[in-house]
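Quick entry, no commentary yet.
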Amino acid sequence: MKIFISYAADDLDKFNIPKIARELEKETDIEQVFYWHRDNQSSQSIVDYMEKSIEKADIIMVFCSEISLESAPVKTELQMALYLNKNTIPVFDRIDHVPLMLKIKRGVKFNSNDFELFFNELLIVLGIKETKEQNILIEEIATEVKEYYDFELYAPEAEFMKELEKLIRTEIPFLDSLKIFGNSLCFFCEDKHIKKLSIYKKKLSFLPESINNLTQLRELYIEKNLLSFLPKSIGDLKYLTKLNLANNKISSIPEEICNLKNLTSLTLTKNKISSLPNSIGELSNLIYLNIVDNKITFLPESIGNLKHLRTLLIFTNKVQSLPESIGNLKELRILYINGNKISSLPKSITNLLNLKELFLNSNEFETFSEDINKWLRKIKKRGCKIMR
């Protein structure tokens, strides 16, 4: 068996392509693995490499991400694979990053927290590893089902929902997934798993540690409640993509929240948070971060590692300065830092090439220095709206 790996160059480290290739080549059933960053030669163009390697390969493994959706080489490789009728396997970080033409294929979700589990699943899809043990485990788990009103849920999830109902003293109604979540009391389930949960304005004072029973939870909204802290177990919700905890009384955020590698949107508006976790930069897929109206005094240097971040809202806090690493946020479009205690800006702010809106007003700039004025003119020339 020969395998060609298709991926966007910027995803090389995210998906750990070199390690995957090495581990695949250890399998006796796999003769060769092709991938450009290892195999490229100065005398060979990438197009020639694509054509020759894809033609030789039995399987095309396509690593799907937000970046790969826009990658011209990945699109070309996929077209070649489909034209040659090659067996194609999508590997994805999020299902909505899988191109429509590949959603009918059996794929594998990449697990950055458990490489061994991911790799075993990959071998099963490749047909190299037997699935007997896995099927037995699935059958055993499937027997542990409980009724939750008109729905069947895996027992730990049904138990958590009942516990939550006791805390808010009311039933939680089902809401179709096509409806808008947030600002409501509802849940959505699928395949015996809770996928979305919203608790709005119910005076909920704490989340039970057993929140991690919701092993497949994608979206969690706990708005306008009385939460003062978060359980560390929230970090176990490895499939969570959206987390909204606006309008509570939360004073600190546990480091464990940074385990949520699939999180794309985090809203912490109107709480009492004084600082963000030092490892906030580990939320590698975060696109939207809203920490408006808190008591935050500084931003961790690691915030510069949020390479996919597009919106950063930190107005109405007590931030005194921005870290130099802010300039690493190459995808940032919107930066609102108004209503803080900022008196200067780092030069690296000129590195924000995609910035479209920058709000600086209501800070502690007595005057803008010559350097800052020069930097702001440079940013404005790129089409960025600046509010001073």
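second:
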Amino acid sequence: MSALLEIREASKAFGGVQAVTRVALEAQKGEILSVIGPNGAGKTTVLNMISGFYHPDTGRIALEGHDVTDLSPSRIAELGIARTFQNIALFRGMTVLDNLMLGRHVHMKTGVLGAFAYWGFAQKEEVEHRRRVEDIIDFLRIQDLRRRPTGSLAYGLQKRVGRWRWTRRSSFSTSRWAGATTRRKRTWRASSSTSTRSGASL
């Protein structure tokens, strides 16, 4: 059985600076992995290669056995790899439900005209994605918050919504642990543990 995510001998250089050299790792479904190192060690570069923002100079990256090394970030997102950042980056004036629905747009096939008409396939597709979002809301146990603006939520809840807005198979985030409070560390662990139910977290 192939790993959910596999990196084989990936290297990346920027001019004369070798950011990462022959990186190799595997992530199985349900795993939480951490990439640890000092500033400048190449941690963010590895995540950027996985999510398609950078392409490795050498090596291979595969998702469930399929080569994604040279795919664009949008195509990789469609396949289910989500990248989150240290800033939460939610639309604070929009509701939890709307933010989660916004994250589903990369998986929707309806064009602009079809969405404007909102009939037939477009309507069915939105209903299906709304069902998926309602499942996420139920899983996170935030049913009573679905109509609340995300800007009014506690920090930990915003982090969970932000992570699950994009998650389908795998999620990756860059987080600074140095100086983090115990409460924030617990929030990150809880958020990561929920995302692994459907994939892996790095």
